[in-house]
Amino acid sequence: MNLSHENVESVFRNCLGETSSNSRLTKEYHGVELYVSFVSLKIEENRSNIEKMLRQIHRGFFADTKNGSGWSFLNFCLNQNNEMWTSSHRHCDYLVCLGLAIDKVAFCMDRKFWNMMTGSMPYLLIKSDNFQEEGPAPGKTLIS
Predict the structure, then answer these.
(1) How far is Cα of residue 85 from the mean position of the Cα atoms in its chain?
(2) Given CB 3.0 to 4.6 Å as the disulfide criterion, which of 3, 24, 83, 133 pairs with 56?
(3) Rounded to an integer, what distance in angstroms lies between the CA atom of residue 17 and that of residue 40?
(4) Which pTM does this prediction carry?
(5) Could you count the other beta carbons within 10 Å of the beta carbon of residue 46?
(6) Mind listing the pLDDT tens digit for each residue in 81-124?
(7) In what order do the strands lie in the sheet with 105-107?
(8) Torsion-angle region of residue 26: left (phi > 0), alpha (psi -120 to 50) or beta?
(9) CA distance 7 to 12
(10) CA gap 103, 135 in Å, rounded
(11) In 3-state terms, what secondary structure has residue 112?
């Protein structure tokens, strides 16, 4: 699946669930600004598409590259060609939440430290398929 704001929004909306519905079927995630509830089955159905879109994000976010060990959310709108795939940070946050749901995205530090970062924005890490180390649990951080 090509990384575009239309595709990210389509998958995001397809996975959304109601927070008041059966809590065994949904799980909540806290993105950069969004609190969302996803239907676990829908996330699994879309796992491949979410991974495909995450793989197209700029390499600076990837844990397995010489050039990457996490990068500011402000740059999450860039693809591997250093081009903007969206002009909306809301769509970036949609993809962050989807990545958290499949345990492929992690915040590099706890929210209480975000105000020390440029623009008070978090640093994110994308865990690639060949990332050998065990990462934090979904929605958790590497530094707390």
Answers:
(1) 15
(2) 3
(3) 9
(4) 0.85
(5) 21
(6) 999 999 999 999 999 999 999 999 999 999 999 999 888 999 99
(7) 71-72, 123-126, 105-107
(8) beta
(9) 8
(10) 8
(11) helix
